[in-house]
Amino acid sequence: MHASKGDKLVQHGRVVGQHDHVVEVVEVLGPEGTPPYRVRAENGHETIMSPGPDCQVRHREEQQQR
Fold this sequence. Notes:
Layout: E1 8-11, E2 21-28, E3 37-40, E4 46-49, E5 55-58, H1 60-65
Antiparallel strand pairs: 1-2, 1-5, 2-3, 3-4
């Protein structure tokens, strides 16, 4: 997994009815865009995250095309 500052990480719900959780990458702590990442949720909470297989990266370029 590779992400850059400004990309979004989408953690998909694991059970029926659970919503996706979207956070923004504010800092890349690993080498060459690899985890861990410092992320910020919509409510302003920041944490360090090493995404698992249930996560997807939405790159900044993809977001601008939508």
